[in-house]
Amino acid sequence: MGAIAAGLQACRDGIAAACQKAARDPASVALLAVSKTFPAAAVREAWQAGQTAFGESYLQEALAKQEALADLPLEWHFIGPIQSNKTRPIAEHFAWAHGVDRLKIAQRLSEARPSDLPPLNICIQVNVSGEASKHGVALGQALALAHEVAGLPRLKLRGFMAIPQETPDPAEQRSQFARLRELLEQTAGLGLDTLSMGMSSDFEAAIMEGATIVRVGSAIFGKRDYT
Questions:
Q1: Rounded CA gap, 188 and 34, in Å?
Q2: Angle value at C-alpha 46, between 45 and 50, nearest 5 degrees
């Protein structure tokens, strides 16, 4: 077994263990392999090990990988901040967009989504820790934004995404994830089903608080080199 296949198996085992601890069905948590900064060959190797959903944050890099891997039935998620000038290629080339934090961005994605594709799945990014350095709509404004985005054509609002403040304290990890879960619980009538939260270092806490998608990169592909 190669390193990537082993990393995937370890993540799946970790998800299953966390679900058992939380009395949840492991099938209720999807693993999104965050492949940003890693080459197309690494994505292909992960696909050969059974992974089909991949997360990218850098648009040009992602589009190049999509072209190189066009022979594979992959599901691409854009998980980075979304700038206005990138909405059209994201709407045209991705199945999910996790970083929507403004109505303007959602409107542009809606207008640009091709009619021959299924609606673009949307997660609203929420700044659950209130950090000035973090992207995301403020927790107190997220519900109003959700109602606005839910009414846009060619989009399907699925739920919320968060990148909480890093902490080694499991109780504090859970506290931040709980804020997103409680927000989802306030959206009765919108039919939302997704909490995209939890990464390599904290996905167990996220699963304990209801995560349905965990975004894991380094635990699968190894240490990132941003140079």
A1: 30
A2: 115
- Of the CA atoms within 13 Å of residue 61, those in its CB half-sphere come to 16
Q: What is the DSSP string of 64-101?
A: HHHHHTTTS--EEEE-S---GGGHHHHHHH-SEEEEE-
d(CA 171, CA 221): 27
Low-confidence ranges of the chain (pLDDT < 70): 227
R_g over Cα of the chain = 17
Check: CB of residue 160 under 8 Å from CB of residue 182: no
- Report domain extents, the chain: 3-221
Q: Dump pLDDT digits (tens) for 36-54.
A: 999 999 999 999 999 999 9
| Domain spanning 3-221, CATH architecture | Alpha-Beta Barrel (3.20)
